[in-house]
Structures are given as C-alpha cells and as structure tokens.
Amino acid sequence: MNRTLALLGLVPLAIAFGHSAADAQTLRASAIVSAPIVTVGDLVFDAGAYAPMPIFQAPDPGQTGQVPAQAIVDAVRAQGLIVNPQGLSTVTVTRGSRRITEEAIAPLVQAEVAKRAQAADPASIQVSLDDTMKVVDLPSEADGPIALVDLTWRADGGMFDASIAISRRDGQIERRALRGTALETVPVVVLSQPVERGAPIEAHDLELVRKPKSEIRGDFVADMASVIGMELRRPVREGAALKSSDLAEPQVIKRGRPVTITLQSGPLTLTAVGEALRDAARGDSVQVMNPQSKRVLQAVATGPDQVTVTIARKLASNAR
Question: Which interval of the chain is the signal sequence (predicted)?
C-alpha cells in the first residue's frame, strides 16, 4: 500500500553547514530502509555528514509510502545541502521487514491443537488464518525464533485465537495477534470425476483427501483399494466422500443374458447353458432358467456369466 509520508521537523546537527558547501547532490527515486526513521542518507546520494539527519517516519514494516520530492529538497536546503530532484515529483520509500507467512505459522498451531484434540498426527489439523493475518510483517530486527503463545481453541467449530512472539536484537519482544480456524481432519475417498451408476470404478476415478472430522458421519471409506472395481448403487457427485453404502459389488450376471450353469451333486459335475432372470453380483443368489426345459433353478453367481447350482444326489439321479 502506498501512502504519503509527512516530513519530520529536521533535527539540527552539531556541525554548522554552510549554504554553499558543495555542488548539488542527486535525489534517489526510491529507497528501502530498515529503521523506523528515514534519514537524508537514505534518500540522497553522497550526503556526507548530512546522512544521519532524520527526515520523516518510515512506513510500517513491509509497507511503502511516498514523500514529495520538493519537500525533501527544501528541507535539506535549509540545512545547507543542495539537492537536485532530477525531475522527480515524489520519492518512494519501502520499509524492509521480516515477513512471516501462514505456512510458517500453521505448523505451530497444528502441534498445539493436536495435543489438545489428542490427535496422533499434527498434520491432520487443517489450519487457516483470517485473510488479514495470513502475512505478518515484522521489523527486520525481529530475527528471533517464532513462538506461539496464549492459544485458545474451541473444538466445536475449530475457532482459535493466539499470538506469536518474536525476540528482537535489542532484547524487546514483538507480538502479533492471530485468529483463524484449526479443524481436525480424517482421510476419505472421493470421486475425482463423475462415474456412471453401474460402471466399474477405476483408480483414476478416485482421490484420497482430508475433510473436517465434524463433517464425516457414518460409514465413510478411507481405503482406495477397497473401492476399485466396485460400482455405485446411487448417483454420487464429484468430490463427495464415498460411503460403504454407496458401493456395490460389480454385477457379473446380467438379466436376459446367457450364463454357464455348473450343476454339482457330490462328485458329479455337469454344465449347461441357461438364461439369467435377474442381475447379480458375485456371491448373490440368482434364478436361472434352462431354455429347453423351462425349468428354473436357484443358483449362486460365481463369476462373469457363471453360476453354480448345488443339487441333491437324488435329483441328479432323476435327471439321468
């Protein structure tokens, strides 16, 4: 953010400077400063003994401000230094900072909230700072380690308030308030793209993501391998967490299609061709009909277009 900076009252130097001391010096178009006060030396090339003279208060850490060039020229001329503005109308000043981002703060919040939530993995805590606090600019001299202090966290909703404390080279402590959410999450399998009902689910249809634990209710699936090859019982939108109840074994028998019937009675095994009377998944009971005799048998689906009928030896004898 740019803002216009006001000149300070210039502090007289102990040395007396004559108004005709030297040729005109050149004004800088911009400067980056680290101190809270901007001096003549920050803005004027080769300012010599005038360099320590304060001109105005620097912007806040990480911020940029502007000061009228002519105001600087007039102020330093009154002290005996002639400066050529080189056609500049304003001079831009940026205050250097130590920038601390959400990425640096989040692990501290995760570790502390994980303890309070008794979560085994701090990475399961999803941290988001309020938008105005995602980046914190501190004075450059605040170069100590970041400490998280005064954390209050509400498990219901995940809202937290805290502060970070950073020591400075001069022994002082910089503190900044934080606010945001810290939610405990769990891994769930979601659809990464639409899948038609009845179509086999493939690995590229799936993604393992973390969702807030408070949003997960019921028999949600956390193992991708257990979903591959299954079918959807009902439509599920892309990105929604999958439940076990959303899934069904793939239909290996389709109604009206021919099937191979294996008839077993003790050591005797016979095969015949029949017609499935309904869809069935592997292991399901399904009725099949012998198209010649029109006899309906109760079978078990054992594979694609494969069913098995177990019959008593007496029935097998009658069949012969």
Answer: 1-21
